[in-house]
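Quick start: read one record
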Amino acid sequence: MIGRARAAPVCRGRQHGVALVLALAVVALAAAAASAILHAQSGWLRVESLRSDRAQALAAADAALDWARAALAREARATGVDHRLEPWAAHIGPLEVEGATVSGWLDDAQGAFNLNGIAPQGRVLPAQLDRYRRLLAVLGLPAGLADALADWLDSDARASGPDGAEDAFYLALAAPYLAANQPLAERGELARVRGYDAQVLERLRPHVVALPVATAVNVNTATPEVLCALLPGSDLGAARALVLERERRPFRSLADFAARAGDRGPDSLDGLAVGSAWFIAQVRVRAGEVVVSAEALLSRAATGAPSIVWRRRG
């Protein structure tokens, strides 16, 4: 009897122990569930925060592009002269705008050599092709690149010598395609043209552009390399000297440019200008943890705000 009486407390102790373990397990599961919920909520809040920051950054980028259009529209064009001493050429920012940091600038697209001007309407212009060959020489690039590009742009199917390339060349590649035989849609399309590898593209990038129509080169904003290509018999040192001079006193007319270029002046003033109608706007915006960049090609008419030809955002 005594042994049986003592067994009961031991059993009850075991039951209490099991209950305690179960209670602890329930608490642990509840804590784990709460932690998972908090983690999920934290991730959701972060995603929503990033979405909000991106929306704010995109809105600020669009506003900055509108500002660039307005800045160009305000520029007086009575003289038809555009140069880098004018307000449009000044960089803006970084500025704090509605919680976002905005910076940007305008660049004259006609300060670069327009590749599409080599073969407007599908017919190669020898004078423009010669200028491009001189630009390639100034940059230390193979002259044959000019023929390959001329074939890509012109409307015929005849290869321009050993360095040219029409359909037969491109169809023989591992991943075949046809020659475009039309203007470049954008500068990046050069990567599809024979000989234009990554190193060539990097060397060319600051000095060439692909605009929707043939345009003149603005001698007030052209890079020294492009300016040198416009001046047969000149060298890069002389072109740089002209650039330094125009920074103090921009060219007011093509006659002014030819006179100040002296004996190294251009063979022809065709395809040259002292004003521009095409500009590229660059914008960078940071909002919270999000950074957005935007680029747009602007076409400026004699009156009204410039139109946006294309816009890229990333």
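Residues 2-74 form the longest helix (73 residues).
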